[in-house]
Design a protein that fits this description.
The complex is a heterotrimer of chains A (638), B (317) and C (445). Chain B is built from eleven helices and ten strands. With 317 residues, chain B is an alpha/beta fold. By secondary structure, chain C is an alpha/beta fold. Chain C has three domains: 53 residues, 3-methyladenine DNA Glycosylase II, Chain A, domain 3, CATH 1.10.15.40; 247 residues, Alpha-Beta Barrel (TIM Barrel), CATH 3.20.20.20; 120 residues, Rossmann fold. Chain C contains 17 helices and 17 strands. Classes of the chains: A alpha/beta (638), B alpha/beta (317), C alpha/beta (445). The interface between B and C is large, with 45 and 47 residues.
Chain lengths: 638, 317, 445
């Protein structure tokens, strides 16, 4: 069998002849950037063959490379078929980079009302005079310690099997762990001695891209460890649709295992950081989108992406951790957030919980933007929700020099309206490699302010300026010259990039407006707009309004709830009553299918303009732009 | 939604086409379009609107024209200025709309011919003129410049600006004080967007006519009709970015299946009916200029408009 | 006034009792707002709420049925002034006029024409609606005989009996009164006997008067006689009065400010010199029943097409008929480009293909008018659809190769389409503007 050596790590692996290099990379557990799921469409999985040769259609995929790169043996890992031994160089740019992942939470006050407890009991050993069975002895002991009524407790067979030995080995001094379950309390563990302090729970945000774990003490609720890592399913396709497609092709078991593995990795990292034992985690709360939740449960998600988009379950579920492959205390239970529809999943319910919008009279709008976006409008009485595909442009996809928020990404940028010269800031302050979502929004807003683009996003090529030029296919604006960039290329934004960006922002804005119209709410009635997710934390709010990503409200009414999913999961972890609230929220949200809403296309076209065709919806932006124009156009010019 | 109120608050702005001698031009007539403050026809009760005009469309290279017209009209079509004369004197049109179809030829570069044909047509007819330039970004600028210059002082209507290419036609229109056609593909939002774009580069609202793109009867007219109604209603409710007069040309009428494949005996009748039904309905939906290509359609429309607009003459209020 | 879901929700009991069959009051309110719900399903509505909701869901224009059997039609029950606010539901009945002084053969031939003539457009059968028999003789027997001639054709098409004299009218009704003909018409002087006839035969009735105010009075009088299936005659002496009057009626009835005008409109174009013009105005602007002389072939097809256009839902995405559309003069080896039937997509792609001057076939599949991106996301554009469409349009016999170019945005489907169809899939550009370049570079056979 051919053996492949990966450079620069010299990791070596053997594969079947006929495998692709990507197969080998994935088997070697190298986290490769595979946007299209290995279809040869995205051109991101570039590798260089340094020794040996592969089967690769250079003509078909040549468009992804320069002649120079081809000369150096460049090919696409997913399309290169292995026959013989190889040395393969993987450039850093093809690896998934350490991403800036949102970690902080708002810390909304949630009373500590856990659903798992530990009781330390010192029991008298049985005698001929006191022949009560072991279990009776234990539950009475717990009750005496202030625990639940003895008759409300029960022990599953597994626990019973270990019980006599633990009791006797410990000299009848044990710690029992109890979990609240429907109808009573379940004894889920019995340990020797006093382990009351070792009682933890974990809140998980199972995202399509990243997994975040918060370990909290369930003695007092404080956070002991946090960790995050990529969702390992990324190797089966970057976006949710490719995951579902992967699941369709008998890939569900693999995806399920990868989901559990990603969770386990985050838990282990967090636990190691905190110096605690995974076995002491007795409860797991998972908030994830509908598809992720289904996959984690091993339920086929295929039917959800077809009409009529019905999820298999729409309420919260609990199950035992081992059944999902989550490696914590053996009898720990896993609580999964409920889902409303294909797109309004547990992550959004968690957002709502974290924002507190469902507990107030004032009307709020919640916007969660990623490749897909979700919007929720409402208050304590009613809620409308909808979701759609924003396209990856706002995350840096479908943009020539777009990239995720990795080191080297331009995350802030301003353009001088007179000289048209940019000033930017990159993540980790290294040389620019590309531009990420927050940078793109800044860029578009300032290109508009400087009249480099018109309101449809077309670049005015009549402006004579070295940074404005006709590119290979489209007009473009040069953000960073080759000499200053980190990849030896002029970093540009093309008219086509801008078009994709506008399409993305238009879907979000059109969804907001559709919900508001459905409810008969104007922007003046919105008390708050919440941004959830990493995206909201980094973007410049004024610029988000400038380009018309969200309806115009005063800046101070825009709040970031950060990672609402992990925040909500934390709240549900430490407060059992919040779990009931969740089901109520899930039940009360009315879901509006944008595809079935005939006015949506109309709103979309109206929103495909900077900031919107109806300028009266954006009076502040209009004023600002008018001022900019006055500065641009010298008096006397028509 | 519909309010039963005679006064909706908004008013359509005016656009002036053509310049007579008194106005430093050479046209025999000039028109002031717009001014409506109510729905079509109803306007006659509360405020006066202008009677719709009928524009007859001709071109400078008839090989791109419908064979129905060329065979009905005969040799005349190869003499563009004569054709324009006929439009005025024989058919009775209010306007002539000249399409510079010669620019469609591959590698077109005979720019002096553009100047010439525009000047010749202006001599051939005393009617105000609409000129449709090229569809090719590479030559747009030169073409619009040429016809703009050739028609200097005549207050032409220059076409056509679209969202993707509006700068060159706007430049020519502004340089020579012509009005321009702003065309968007059957969508009120896109129509409004284009008008905003034009405003932002300095084109005045009274130099813009909205062309909402008119699908021919049975082929998109169902959408065009409503888009025209929507545009007009939004303008009457006060949206100044849509408060311009509209021009409608169901220019594919003669090439749709029902007309193209009709029995030759009645083909002209069907062609006329197809144009007439769409043009009249466009006027009902708010169009101020309707354009047709079959000579026989012109008098029918003129008659209908005269009857419905209570005997007013074109340009009269 | 159309109520929003939230306005309705505020009137509901908010118990989420599920007795209406919906999971929550909010979803029930959404159904009501979209016109799909039935307020009576809520058992806990108070009277006030019922009144408000009832009034907003009752049609502001009376539904009137004309004729019986297969060719019967209904007019009225419209909800909006402009099509773009929702849609128009009931296209006007267009009736060919015949006269009782005509020879029987002539009456018969017009009737038979209405009975059998039809045009097929966009998969729909378009026909004229019926005949209007006018009493020009003034003689009840002659009129009755003419009605008899129409009846004897066995076409079962709806009829309008146009006889001002109630005595004459009754003679006609005796022949066809069981088939719900439209009675034309009741005036201030004749409304009592006309209403009696309408009642006796269960027929709808047109009311005529000199202006809108008098028409409103007439409908009240007829209502008092127990007749509510009414039409308003707007065939005023001058055609230029039609559109203002029809618009005013529509506005007032929709806003419910003049319920006495909440009836469909009747227009007799035979009174005017410019009949085509009258016909267009009637179709564009709210007519329920239009009487016209038998139309020539050109006007016939234009009229039916215009009526179809005006009564198409303008909010539905503009769709092309799925199928194969040649561009240029393609041959057996020409490329085949798949795209969706959203017509703007079609026209854009077609434009760029034409300018590319590469002869090819556009292969349009039915995505219900969705654009490529939405169709892929919604699963409407999928491998099964492509496979079935290849079969349906016999693509395999049209070209000798087995290669299919799909839109760039459909690239996730390329593998599945290959598996399902056995055709080699080439992924085209995402932007239609690049299609010419793409064909010139990529298409080699």
């Amino acid at each position: 069998m051919p053996s492949i050596t990966f450079l620069p790590s010299y990791r070596k692996i053997t594969v079947e002849p006929g495998s692709t290099i990507l197969d080998a990379i994935q088997r070697a557990q190298i986290q490769m950037n595979v946007v299209c799921g290995g279809q040869g469409k995205c051109g991101k999985c570039i590798v260089y063959i340094k020794n040996g040769s592969v089967e690769f259609d250079r003509e078909k995929f040549g468009k992804f490379f320069t002649a120079d790169e081809l000369g150096q043996g460049a090919c696409l890992a997913c399309q290169a078929v292995v026959r013989d031994d190889l040395h393969v160089m993987i450039p850093d740019s093809s690896l998934i980079q350490q991403q800036k992942i949102l970690m902080e939470s708002l810390g909304i006050e949630t009373p500590f009302q856990p659903s798992v407890w530990k009781y330390y009991v010192e029991l008298s050993p049985p005698t001929l005079e006191d022949p009560s069975p072991d279990l009776t002895r234990l539950v009475w002991g717990i009750q005496k310690q202030g625990g639940p009524l003895a008759e409300k407790m029960y022990a599953p067979l597994d626990v019973l099997r270990g019980m006599p030995r633990v009791l006797r080995d410990s000299g009848w001094r044990v710690t029992a762990t109890l979990a609240l379950v429907p109808g009573g309390y379940r004894i889920i563990d019995i340990e020797k001695g006093d382990t009351r302090k070792e009682l933890y729970g974990v809140a998980i945000d199972l995202g399509t891209t990243t997994v975040v774990a918060y370990i909290r003490s369930l003695v007092d609720g404080h956070v002991v460890g946090i960790a995050s890592n990529y969702n390992r399913q990324i190797s089966c396709g970057e976006d949710i649709l490719s995951r579902v497609n992967f699941a369709r092709k008998n890939g569900l078991p693999k995806l399920q295992a990868l989901a559990a593995e990603s969770i386990n990795l985050a838990i282990t990292t967090a636990a190691n950081g905190a110096g605690i034992d995974r076995e002491d985690i007795y409860e797991v709360v998972v908030a994830g989108n509908t598809i992720m939740t289904h996959i984690l449960l091993g339920i086929d998600p295929a039917y959800m992406i077809e009409e009529p988009y019905v999820p298999v379950v729409r309420r919260y579920l609990t199950t035992a951790a081992p059944r999902l492959g989550i490696e914590v205390a053996k009898d720990a239970s896993v609580f999964l957030f409920p889902a409303v529809s294909d797109f309004i999943g547990g992550d959004i319910i968690a957002d709502i919980l974290a924002s507190g919008m469902g507990e107030r009279d004032e009307i709020s709008l919640l916007v969660d933007i990623g490749t897909n976006f979700e919007v929720v409008l409402g208050n304590r009485d009613w809620m409308f929700s909808c979701a759609g595909a924003a396209g990856p442009a706002l995350e840096g996809g479908e943009v020539l020099f777009g990239m995720r928020a990795n080191p080297g990404a331009i995350e802030r940028i301003t353009i001088d309206p007179v000289t048209l010269e940019p000033q930017y800031q990159t993540i980790n302050s290294i040389k620019p490699m590309g531009i990420c979502g927050s940078g793109l929004i800044d860029l578009l807003a300032d290109l508009l302010r400087a009249c480099v683009v018109d309101r449809t996003g077309r670049i005015n090529t009549e402006i004579i300026h070295p940074r404005i030029r006709q590119g290979v296919h489209f007009p473009e604006y040069v953000i960073a010259w080759k000499q200053e960039s980190g990849n030896n290329k002029d970093i540009v934004i093309t008219e086509n990039d801008i078009k994709n960006l506008i399409m993305s922002k238009a879907s979000v804005l059109a969804a907001c407006i559709t919900l508001m119209k459905q409810a008969g709410i104007t922007r003046n009635e919105l008390s708050t707009i919440y941004f959830s997710g990493a995206f909201g934390n980094y973007i410049h709010k004024e610029n988000a309004i400038m380009i018309g990503l969200i309806p115009e409200v005063p800046i101070e009414q825009i709040r970031n709830i950060g990672n609402g999913a992990v925040e909500g999961a934390n709240m549900a972890l430490i407060n059992r009553k919040k779990r009931k609230t969740l089901d109520e929220i899930a039940k009360n949200i009315a879901y509006i299918e944008l595809n079935a809403e005939s006015s949506f296309m109309d709103e979309y076209t109206g929103s495909s303009f900077l900031p919107h065709t109806d300028l009266s919806l954006f009076p502040r932006v209009q004023k600002m732009l008018d001022e900019c124009r006055l500065k641009k156009i010298p008096p006397g010019v028509p | 939604m519909a309010e039963n109120s005679p006064d909706l608050g908004g008013k359509i702005g005016y656009v002036v086409l053509g310049a007579t001698k008194a106005e430093d031009g050479t046209r025999s007539v000039s028109y002031r379009l717009g001014g409506e403050s109510d729905l079509p026809f109803i306007g006659m009760k509360t405020s006066l609107g202008s009677i719709p005009l009928v524009a007859f469309e001709i071109c400078d290279d008839p090989s791109y024209w419908s064979p129905i017209v060329t065979s009905y009209t005969g040799d005349l079509v190869s003499d563009t200025p004569e054709w324009a004369t006929a439009a005025e004197q024989q058919y009775g049109a209010d306007l002539v709309r000249l399409y510079l179809t010669s620019t469609k030829r591959r590698g077109f570069d005979d720019f002096p011919s553009i100047t010439k044909v525009t000047e010749d047509v202006l001599s051939g007819t005393g009617l105000p003129l609409v000129v449709e330039g090229s569809n090719e970004p590479a030559i747009d600028s030169e073409i619009f410049q040429r016809c703009g210059e050739a028609g200097q002082g005549e207050r032409l209507l220059l076409g056509t600006a679209e969202a993707g290419r509006y700068r060159s036609v706007a430049a020519a229109a502004m340089a020579y004080n012509h009005s321009m056609v702003a065309q968007s593909p059957i969508d009120i939002n896109l129509a409004k967007q284009l008008n905003i774009l034009l405003r932002e580069i300095g084109v005045k609202a009274d130099h813009i006519m909205i062309d909402p793109y008119t699908g021919s009867l049975g082929y998109g007219f169902e959408y065009s009709y409503s888009v025209m109604e929507r545009i007009r209603y939004a303008a009457l409710k006060g949206d100044t970015d849509l408060a311009m007069p509209m021009i409608a040309s169901a220019m594919d009428s003669l090439s749709v299946k029902e007309v193209r494949e009709a029995d030759p005996v009645i083909r002209d009748d069907i062609a006329v009916a197809w144009e007439f039904y769409a043009a009249l309905s466009s006027a009902v939906a708010g169009a101020s200029i309707v354009c047709v290509r079959h000579p026989k359609t012109v008098p029918l429309l003129k008659l209908a408009f005269r009857e419905l607009w209570a005997g007013k003459k074109p340009g009269e209020f | 006034m159309v109520l929003k879901a939230l306005d309705i929700y505020k009137l509901l009991p908010k118990k989420n009792c599920k007795e209406c069959g919906d999971p929550t009051c909010l979803t029930f309110a959404m159904k009501l707002a979209s016109g799909k719900g039935d307020i009576d399903k809520c058992p806990y509505l108070d009277l006030n709420a019922k009144n408000i909701l009832g009034a907003s869901t009752r049609p502001p224009i009376q539904l009137v049925k004309i004729g019986v059997g297969e060719r019967r039609f209904a007019v009225g029950e419209e909800f909006v002034v402009f099509r773009h606010e929702k849609t128009f539901y009931h296209p006007p009945g267009i009736m060919f006029q015949v006269s009782d002084i005509w020879p029987a053969e002539k009456i018969e031939s017009v009737t038979r024409r209405v009975g059998s003539e039809h045009f097929v457009r966009v998969g729909t059968d378009l026909t004229f609606s019926g005949v209007a028999i006018t009493n020009e003789s003034g003689d009840p027997d002659v009129f009755s005989k003419a009605v008899g001639v129409v009846e004897a054709t066995g076409t079962h098409i709806p009829e309008v009996l146009m006889a001002a004299d109630p005595v004459v009218q009754e003679e006609g009704l005796k022949k066809c009164g069981n088939f719900r003909p439209l009675i034309y018409s009741a005036t201030k002087d004749t409304y009592k006997p006309m209403c009696a006839l309408a009642k006796k035969f269960g027929s709808p009735l047109v009311v005529s008067a000199k202006d809108l105010e008098s028409l409103g009075e007439m409908t009240k009088l007829c209502n008092a006689e127990g007749i509510t299936d009414l039409l308003l005659d707007l065939s005023f002496p001058s055609l230029r009065d039609y559109v203002p009057a029809a618009t005013e009626i529509r506005q007032k009835s929709i806003s419910r400010s003049a319920p006495e005008l909440g009836y469909p409109i009747f227009l007799d174009t035979t009174r005017y010199e410019m009949q085509d013009t009258a016909l267009v105005l009637g179709i564009d602007k709210y007519a329920g029943v239009i009487v016209t002389p038998a139309l020539g072939p050109a006007s016939s097809v234009a009229t039916l097409t215009l009526r179809q256009n005006i009564y198409t839902d303008p909010q539905k995405p503009i769709q092309m008929n799925p199928g194969i559309y040649p561009v240029g003069n393609p041959g057996k080896e020409s490329p085949v480009l798949l795209t969706v039937n959203f017509s703007l997509t079609y026209f854009t792609v077609q434009g760029y293909l034409e300018s590319s001057r590469v002869p090819c076939y556009m292969f349009i599949v039915d995505t219900e008018g969705l654009s490529v991106l939405t169709a892929v996301a919604a699963g409407k554009l999928n491998e099964t659809l492509v496979r079935d469409s290849i079969k349906k349009f016999d693509l395999e016999n049209l070209v000798s190769h087995r290669r299919l170019i799909i839109p760039g945005y459909a690239s996730p489907l390329s593998g599945k389409i290959e598996e399902e169809t056995g055709w080699k899939v080439l992924v085209g550009p995402r932007d239609a503007a690049e299609i010419g370049d793409y064909l010139q570079k990529e298409w080699k056979i």
